Amino acid sequence: MSISSHLAFITDDNEINLKVAGALLKRLGWSVETFDNARAMLQRLEDVQPASILLDISMPDMGGESACAHIRARSEWNAVRVIAYTAHAMSEDADRFRANGFNAVLIKPITLASLTQAMGRPEQC
């Protein structure tokens, strides 16, 4: 399965966060699929491999750290850029996220500039 270089998944249990991140990503030229839980996103990942995944850390069904571990356990998904999408702004949290397989950390509330820095443009992926 090849990576869809202009596709990003957003996984967050908060509808407003999904809408804001989706709108900003679309402004940057991304195609977007949204998920309100990690299990649904992981199921979709079986069929479609996005270039990047914004993954909320605190979700009720499966947290972002567990979902990232599932992604990193599959060698065919190693090229997917996984970004921790969180309100946890402590530097030790960010260090832990990166040590556990996340490529970047995006702190909520997001801005176009912070999203651009975390994601890059689709043609750069």
From TrEMBL:
<keyword id="KW-0597">Phosphoprotein</keyword>
<keyword id="KW-0902">Two-component regulatory system</keyword>
<dbReference type="InterPro" id="IPR001789">
    <property type="entry name" value="Sig_transdc_resp-reg_receiver"/>
</dbReference>
<dbReference type="GO" id="GO:0000160">
    <property type="term" value="P:phosphorelay signal transduction system"/>
</dbReference>
<dbReference type="Pfam" id="PF00072">
    <property type="entry name" value="Response_reg"/>
</dbReference>
<protein>
    <recommendedName>
        <fullName>Response regulatory domain-containing protein</fullName>
    </recommendedName>
</protein>
<feature type="modified residue" description="4-aspartylphosphate">
    <location>
        <position position="56"/>
    </location>
</feature>
<dbReference type="InterPro" id="IPR011006">
    <property type="entry name" value="CheY-like_superfamily"/>
</dbReference>
<feature type="domain" description="Response regulatory">
    <location>
        <begin position="7"/>
        <end position="123"/>
    </location>
</feature>
